[in-house]
Amino acid sequence: MFSFLKSKGLELIDASGKDFDTDYHEAVAQIPAQNPKDKNKVLDVVQQGYTLNGTIVRFAKVVVGV
Questions:
Q1: How confident is the model at residue 42 (pLDDT cuts 50, 70, 90)?
Q2: Which of 11, 35, 39, 42 is the right S-S partner for 62, CB 3.0 to 4.6 Å?
Q3: 2, 3, 7, 36, 61 from 26: Cα distances, Å
Q4: What order do you get walking across the sheet with 50-52 strand by strand?
Q5: Cα separation of 66 and 58, whole Å?
Q6: SS3 for 47?
């Protein structure tokens, strides 16, 4: 089913390890960052997000380092 939806333009939002971006991510938790470089980065993905032909269908629910 995913391959059919992908052929119609559905894509996963790649969030893990990326900078936190409110256009694509929804922060559900914040945890202290172990390294200073992990501040404002997505440390864990709780629920995958999706886009359909460039439009957000569901935001990725993520844990952010602070």
A1: very high
A2: 42
A3: 23, 26, 26, 21, 5
A4: 10-12, 50-52, 55-58
A5: 24
A6: strand
Asked if 47 and 21 count as a contact pair (C-beta separation under 8 A), the reply is: no
**Which structure tokens are listed for 52?**
């359909």
Q: Which residue has the tokens 């957000």?
A: 56
pTM given for the model: 0.81
Euclidean distance between CA atoms 57 and 66, whole angstroms:
27
Q: Please, what is the Cα angle at 45 between 40 and 47, to 5 degrees?
A: 130
What DSSP state is assigned to residue 57?
E
Average pLDDT over residues 9-36: 91
pLDDT at 38: 86
